[in-house]
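User: Can you help me understand a structure? I only have the sequence.
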Amino acid sequence: MILETPRLVLTMWDKGDAALIRQLHSTIDTTRYLSGAAPWTLEKAEERLKSWFGEQARDGVTKYKMLRRDDGRFIGRAGFSRFQEERGRGEFELGYSLSREVWGNGYATEIAGALADWFFTRGIAKRFIAFTHPENAASQRVLRKIGMQESPSIVIDGLSCPSFGMSR
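Assistant: Let's start by predicting it. Here is the structure, written out as tokens:
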């Protein structure tokens, strides 16, 4: 177990979890705000899983598997990755994706807030960032709710994306 909240658990992935990741990102609803804006293939899910193992080994953090605490059901992913901007800052970036069927239950706010505390308690860095697709108002609300401050926009895939930062 990586992190536990009242309703959620983050754990490291298992090598056979690509099918779960593909299922999470199998619809346009769950990918429209991600780079590429298209449902993921199994090959893409396997590639991302491999990259998360690599990030964990290199940085000590990654995007983790998110389960409901009460029944152990897989509902998404959340954690930190290094964001390589053109300027090469390499800051840690908070990210999360949840299954469509659990949207609106406050899980994103719960896990994002817990991850922020976990990040600083572990002394990973003094600051992290997050950004959203310009139309993803729900995620922007989550980031503001956990206390992130708005920063200058970041251009990703030609879009000017709202950006946020948190320092402690």
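Now, to help you interpret it: The mean pLDDT is 92. DSSP finds five helices and eight strands in the chain. Let me know which part you'd like to focus on.
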